[in-house]
Specification:
The protein has 258 residues and is of the alpha/beta class. The protein is 41% helix and 15% strand. It has an 8-stranded parallel beta barrel, surrounded by 5 helices. Helix 7 runs parallel beside helix 8. It starts with a strand and ends with a helix. It binds 2-phosphoglycolic acid. The site of 2-phosphoglycolic acid (PGA) has 13 residues, from strand 8.
Length: 258
């Protein structure tokens, strides 16, 4: 299986989100085999987009959540509220939130635990900054993030967690790591996962890649067996790009069953 997560960020309002969701459904129609697709509109569009994707194979994801069920937390939204809207997935720990909103590993940990407690599927983002990469400490960075966020977390099934390896320097920049670098990082990530989640088979936890994915650079990532999918930002609000990405994933899956 391959998973494509479309992170629409703050790029679209309600009307555009609904149109994109409809377009995504059309793109998936009539395929022999297609990837799992999770679309993550802004909060304000979740309700309308849910009406579009309900009873389809497309999953609805949120871009963030808060870690309490309810209470005096102005502006925040809980997992319980999200599931009420039909949201099944949530992106947690995105580098933009870490950078602009001051999210720490501890906050990310609380969010992951809350999402899991609310039976949501978590897409946990990890990745090093450009200076960490230059200093050659990308593994240490990713290790720290995974250990701080996941150690002791109760995971009932490997399906509930996906890791998105997103080097911060690759997000929205057009720069992408070599596929070999991603593969090596995926192996490393799985070794940490088996350490921090010993009851899980780390090979079954999906590890996605994210950062400057576009239609025309997708195939080399997806044809790798250990890259379980992609977290797509900018390109995911362009329907022709999203279609190319889904086409590439379908092609890979088709070849696997042929
Ligand atoms: P990008 O963003 O595809 O625009 O680089 C990826 C992400 O932030 O998830």
């Amino acid at each position: 299986m391959k998973t494509i997560v479309a992170n629409w960020k703050m790029n679209v309002g309600v009307r555009e989100s609904v149109a994109l969701a409809r377009g995504t459904l059309l793109t998936l129609r009539g395929r022999r085999i297609s990837p799992e697709v999770v679309i993550c509109p802004p909060f304000i569009a979740l309700s309308e987009v849910h009406k579009v994707v309900a009873r389809s194979a497309v999953f609805l994801g949120a871009q963030n959540l808060f870690w309490e069920d309810h209470g005096a937390y102005t502006g925040e939204i809980s997992g319980r509220m999200l599931t009420e809207l039909g949201v099944s997935h949530v992106i947690v720990g995105h580098s933009e939130r870490r950078e602009y909103l001051g999210e720490t590993d501890e906050m990310v940990r609380n969010k992951v635990a809350h999402a899991l407690a609310n039976q949501m599927n978590v897409i946990l983002c990890v990745g090093e900054t450009v200076s960490e990469r230059k200093a050659g400490v990308q593994r240490e960075r990713v290790r720290t993030q995974l250990v701080r966020v996941l150690a002791g977390v109760r995971l009932k099934s490997h399906d509930r967690l996906m890791i998105a390896y997103e080097p911060v320097w690759a997000i929205g920049t057009g720069e992408i790591p070599e596929v070999a670098e991603i593969l090596a990082m995926n192996v490393y990530i799985r070794s940490i996962l088996s350490e921090v989640l010993p009851e899980m088979n780390a090979n079954k936890i999906r590890v996605l890649y994210g950062g400057s994915v576009e239609g025309n650079n997708t195939y080399p990532f997806l044809r790798e067996q250990t890259i379980d999918g992609l977290l797509v930002g900018g390109a995911s609000v362009k329907l022709n790009q999203l279609k190319e990405i889904i086409d590439a994933a379908s092609e890979v899956l088709d070849a696997q069953i042929a």
